[in-house]
């Protein structure tokens, strides 16, 4: 395909869509599917057929529309209205164009905070293009950034653009994406790889999944641009095995892109060639760590290895490897299309652009959101998130999953960016944001995350393998009222050991949930230990009098 | 006439062997493809038997201990047959906050511990790390179908209905 | 060979480019503790006992995996490092069932020596007392999982020196277990050549020669240097 072909296809598809009386978008992302979206799409399709209006009304599936808790969601293109809690019985009204009248009670207010306080870059297409149709993506301007990169820019210029954007890795650590690309590009080796880390494993995080399900071509385009910039001809996407739908859509998207010569050889009639293959994970959280992920692609046990050397120097099969997360690649096409300077105007001085968060837990609007970096936690939780249900009190927000921390109410007004979160003992992480109310016991939350780390520890280094087990044991005893003050001291020593001596990030950050809860909710630890009482009423503890006796192992 | 697939008749078995062979040849019998091949083998056979692992090791020219090491490192692979039904409890943070532990306790009490199958082979219980349906927390996947916002009582009722003792 | 000059524990030392901190330290009589490192096979940096402080670096580094650099100032024995090492050794004692009094290598065990040199007289952590098996199916050797510290020396020596790759780990995390072939008894292993290298490099009594009584077994690692020197330099020296 040439650039002219691309523009022609875009114009054709836009004209076709404009010729329709109505285009009905059914959210077919995981959240809505599990509340019955497939049946709705089927009912609408049947309704269109039954009424014989196939020429004027079209129904397509889309990626996540965001407000998962109100799903299944359906959007009508003509007026842009989103309807909540749609049922198959509503198909008739929607196809007839009577939604505004007949489903008025389920119309979502487009002026609600949930919508207007967001800013969508990565999720711009999510909910507005059919992820299974390449032409939809092309109509939305897709692959034009790749065309621009390949035809107008040198690899070095692409990297400059990314550097200028100030984009930082969205996988958690926040390393400068442009610098990483430059490092790989500089390696004087012919064979290099681009790898997309889609092994999203934080419990309570589904950003990457939603991006892959909702806009797979966006990720492919970002990877191809990266391949051009660093001089790689082969890319891999390492996807979690649990993400069946994402895998299916990626496979289909790769095939479509290859067929249109947007991937493969002679892309845009240039000498640039780039292929992408999928590698399916098999259920190991630690494979989100870059060296473990590389080991896993090589068919080995997913155990991390010592860094340096870092993957940009020696990665997959010992070759220079660029590893970025799904959301990072999702930002690339807009940056190349609109320029790094545009991107740099969004966000804070050190954290540019937007961040996608998966809101979950004790919050009214569970779902997927994208906000400019620097948005306050209060805005996210209370305005976009709609606050805590049942009039309960906000207790903490957990970010960064098992590597992150719990943020107490006094920090609700901090801007959400890499530095600020780090300062208060949490991390940006990949974007899971779980809200807890006064019924959540923070000691048990710490135990929950330690249980996770213990289960997911690869077992290679002693501090993580045996240390997580001991920390979990102590936390469990605290929640059962069987611990004393010495145990807390030991817990802190173990935390320090894991932080300073573990081989990889999993072990080094495993103590974070414990340390942040010890910092901000030490009263709860004391209540469990001294008074044998769980302030949240979550843990079952024996009465104080009987619990002083030795507990049998 | 519709073709009825019976899992254990020899003709079908041959097919499975052929499919596995094809998967390995597609990857040029490269040891790097071990995980892909194990995925295929498990899809075809339901679980990984020692004989299967031995075959894979030989064909990919890998030491058997490495094949078993990989197969047991990843939770996705199962070395035991699955139960007649399966319950996957989401233990992601959102489900945890919403009370997934209570659901797990019910299943552990009535069926089996997470990652195993009840002695009568009726029910396999698994814990999943976030199934991405945080809006429906706490959620359990019963034979591929999601049971949203489940309470322990509802789960007990569901188990009664299935006929779990 | 280019020489690197550096300082370890206040002592000016030299090493060659590419040499690890660990190896330079040992060459100079500074014995950094270790469990997973064994000369002659590759390093994995898994035990974390050899973590040292490098001036100007925020994080501790594993001495066995870090090449020396010109002008490095290294400390191997600070209070903090000792505290970490003690806790790591305690973690090992609590992880499995290490009962020295009934062990064949009692008195010549690297784990025991470590505990003694670090002054560990009791373990503050809860013992896990896992139920683990002993495999005595092999004609000449035995494997006692209770004493295994998962250092992977046996796996590496079997793979890299003997070339058999009989051993590997199954499972993960605290459930990791040393396996031979497809997990069958060691005596049934088709790949094992019964060379006994794994037994000699094992730091504890996990891999042992049959017929030895408590405290009787002594391990000899010199063979490894002999083989590796022979292979690399074509010199057969004892």
Characteristic key phrases:
heterotrimer, A: 553 residues, alpha/beta, Glutaredoxin, Rossmann fold, Ubiquitin-like (UB roll), 4 domains, five-stranded mixed sheet, four-stranded mixed sheet, disordered C terminus, B: 165 residues, alpha+beta, Arc Repressor Mutant, subunit A, 2 domains, 46% helix, elongated
Summarize the entry for a quick read:
Chain B is an alpha+beta fold and about 160 residues long. Chain B is about 45% helix and about 10% strand.
Helix and strand topology:
The complex is a heterotrimer of chains A (553), B (165) and C (238).
Chain A: H1 3-18, E1 22-27, H2 30-34, H3 37-51, E2 57-62, E3 74-76, E4 81-83, H4 91-95, H5 99-102, H6 113-116, H7 134-139, H8 144-152, H9 155-165, H10 177-186, E5 193-198, H11 207-214, H12 216-230, E6 234-239, H13 244-259, E7 275-280, H14 290-297, E8 321-325, H15 326-338, H16 340-344, E9 354-361, E10 367-372, H17 377-384, E11 394-399, E12 405-407, H18 418-423, E13 432-437, H19 442-456, H20 462-479, H21 485-501, H22 505-509, H23 512-520, H24 522-530
Parallel strand pairs in A: 1-2, 5-6, 5-8, 6-7, 9-13
Antiparallel strand pairs in A: 1-3, 3-4, 9-10, 11-12, 11-13
Helix pairs in contact in A: 8-12, 8-15, 9-10, 9-12, 11-12, 11-13, 12-15, 19-20, 19-23, 20-21
Chain B: H1 10-26, H2 34-45, H3 50-59, H4 64-73, E1 85-90, H5 93-97, H6 100-110, E2 116-117, E3 123-128, E4 140-142, E5 145-147, H7 152-162
Parallel strand pairs in B: 1-3
Antiparallel strand pairs in B: 1-4, 2-3, 4-5
Chain C: E1 3-8, E2 11-16, H1 21-27, E3 51-54, E4 61-62, E5 73-75, H2 79-95, H3 110-117, E6 134-135, E7 141-144, H4 153-162, E8 167-170, E9 177-180, H5 197-201, E10 207-209, H6 222-233
Parallel strand pairs in C: 1-5
Antiparallel strand pairs in C: 1-2, 3-4, 3-5, 6-7, 7-10, 8-9
């Amino acid at each position: 395909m040439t650039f002219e072909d691309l523009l022609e296809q875009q114009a054709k598809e836009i004209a076709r869509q404009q010729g329709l009386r109505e285009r009905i978008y059914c959210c077919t992302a995981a959240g809505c599917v599990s509340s019955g979206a497939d049946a709705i799409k089927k009912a609408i399709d049947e309704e269109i057929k039954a009424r014989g209006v196939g020429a004027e009304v079209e129904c397509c599936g889309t990626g996540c529309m965001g407000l998962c808790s109100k799903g299944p969601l359906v959007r009508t293109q003509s007026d842009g209205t989103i309807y909540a809690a749609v049922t198959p019985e509503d198909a008739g009204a929607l196809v007839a164009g009577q939604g505004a009248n007949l489903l008025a009670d389920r119309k979502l207010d487009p002026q609600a905070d949930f919508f207007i306080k967001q800013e969508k870059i990565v999720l711009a297409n999510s909910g507005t293009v059919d992820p299974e149709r390449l032409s939809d993506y092309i109509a939305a301007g897709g692959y034009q950034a790749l065309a621009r990169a390949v035809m107008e820019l040198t690899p070095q210029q692409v990297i400059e653009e990314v550097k200028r954007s100030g984009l930082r890795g969205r996988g958690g650590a926040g390393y400068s994406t442009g610098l990483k690309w430059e490092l790989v590009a500089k390696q004087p080796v012919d064979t290099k790889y681009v790898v997309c880390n889609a092994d999203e494993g934080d419990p309570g995080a589904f950003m990457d999944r939603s991006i892959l399900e909702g806009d797979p071509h966006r990720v492919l385009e970002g990877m191809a641009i990266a391949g051009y910039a660093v001089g790689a001809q082969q890319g891999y996407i390492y996807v979690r095995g649990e993400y069946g739908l994402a895998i299916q859509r990626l496979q289909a998207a790769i095939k479509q892109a290859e067929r249109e010569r947007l991937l493969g050889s002679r892309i845009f009639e240039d000498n640039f060639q780039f292929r992408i293959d999928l590698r399916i994970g098999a259920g190991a959280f630690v494979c989100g760590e870059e060296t473990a992920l590389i080991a896993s692609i090589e068919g080995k046990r997913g155990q991390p290895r010592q860094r340096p050397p870092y993957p940009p120097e020696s990665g997959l099969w010992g070759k220079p490897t660029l590893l970025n997360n799904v959301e990072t690649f999702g930002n690339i096409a807009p940056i190349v299309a609109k320029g790094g300077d545009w991107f740099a105007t969004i966000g804070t001085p050190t954290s540019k652009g937007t961040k996608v968060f998966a809101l979950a837990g004790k919050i009214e609007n569970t779902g997927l959101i994208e906000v400019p970096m620097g948005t306050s936690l209060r805005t996210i939780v209370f305005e976009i998130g709609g606050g805590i249900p049942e009039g309960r009190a906000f207790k903490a927000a957990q970010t960064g999953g098992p590597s992150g921390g719990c943020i107490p109410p006094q920090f609700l007004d901090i801007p959400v960016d890499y530095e600020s979160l780090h300062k208060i003992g949490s991390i940006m992480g990949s974007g899971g944001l779980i809200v807890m109310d006064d019924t959540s016991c923070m000691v048990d939350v710490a135990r929950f995350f330690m249980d996770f780390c213990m289960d997911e520890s690869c077992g290679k280094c002693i501090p993580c393998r045996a240390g997580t087990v001991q920390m979990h044991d102590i936390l469990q005893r605290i929640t059962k009222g069987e611990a004393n003050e010495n145990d807390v001291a030991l817990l802190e020593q173990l935390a320090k050991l894991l932080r300073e001596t573990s081989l990889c990030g999993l072990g080094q950050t495993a103590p974070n949930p414990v340390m942040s809860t010890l910092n901000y909710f030490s009263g709860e630890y004391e209540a469990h230990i001294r008074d044998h009482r769980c302030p949240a009423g979550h843990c079952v503890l024996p009465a104080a009098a009987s619990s002083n006796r030795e507990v049998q192992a | 006439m519709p073709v009825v697939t019976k899992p254990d008749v020899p003709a079908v078995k041959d097919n499975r062997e052929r499919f596995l062979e094809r998967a390995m040849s597609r990857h040029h019998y490269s040891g790097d493809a071990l995980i892909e091949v194990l995925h295929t083998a498990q899809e075809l056979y339901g679980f990984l038997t020692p004989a299967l692992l031995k075959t894979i090791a030989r064909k990919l020219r890998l030491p058997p201990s490495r094949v078993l090491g990989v197969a047991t490192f990843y939770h996705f692979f199962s070395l035991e047959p699955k139960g007649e039904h399966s319950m996957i409890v989401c233990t992601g943070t959102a489900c945890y906050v919403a009370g997934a532990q209570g659901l797990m306790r019910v299943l552990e009490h009535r069926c089996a511990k997470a990652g195993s199958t009840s002695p009568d082979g009726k029910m396999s219980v698994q814990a999943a790390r976030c199934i991405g349906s945080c809006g429906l927390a706490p959620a359990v996947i019963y034979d591929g179908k999601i049971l949203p916002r489940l309470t322990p009582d509802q789960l007990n009722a569901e188990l009664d209905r299935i006929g779990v003792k | 060979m280019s020489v690197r000059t550096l300082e370890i524990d206040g002592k000016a030392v030299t090493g060659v480019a590419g040499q690890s901190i660990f190896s330079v330290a040992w060459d100079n009589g500074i014995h950094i503790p270790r469990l997973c490192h064994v000369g002659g096979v590759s390093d994995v940096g898994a035990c974390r006992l050899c973590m040292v402080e490098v001036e100007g670096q925020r994080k501790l580094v594993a001495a066995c995996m870090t090449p020396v650099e010109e002008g490095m100032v290294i400390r191997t024995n600070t209070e903090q490092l000792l505290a970490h090492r003690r806790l790591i050794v305690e973690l090992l004692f609590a992880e499995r069932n290490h009962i020295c009094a009934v062990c064949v290598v009692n008195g010549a065990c690297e784990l025991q020596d470590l505990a003694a040199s670090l002054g560990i007289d009791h373990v503050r952590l809860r013992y896990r007392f896992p139920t683990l098996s002993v495999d005595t199916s092999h004609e000449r050797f035995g494997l006692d999982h209770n004493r295994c510290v998962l250092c992977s020396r046996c796996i590496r020596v079997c793979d890299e020196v003997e070339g058999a790759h009989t051993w590997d780990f199954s499972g993960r995390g605290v459930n990791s277990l040393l396996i031979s072939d497809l997990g069958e008894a060691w005596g049934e292993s088709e790949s094992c050549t019964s060379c006994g290298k794994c037994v000699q490099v094992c730091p504890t009594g996990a891999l042992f020669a049959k017929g030895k009584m408590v405290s009787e077994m002594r391990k000899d690692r010199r063979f490894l240097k002999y083989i590796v020197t022979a292979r690399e330099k074509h010199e057969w020296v004892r």
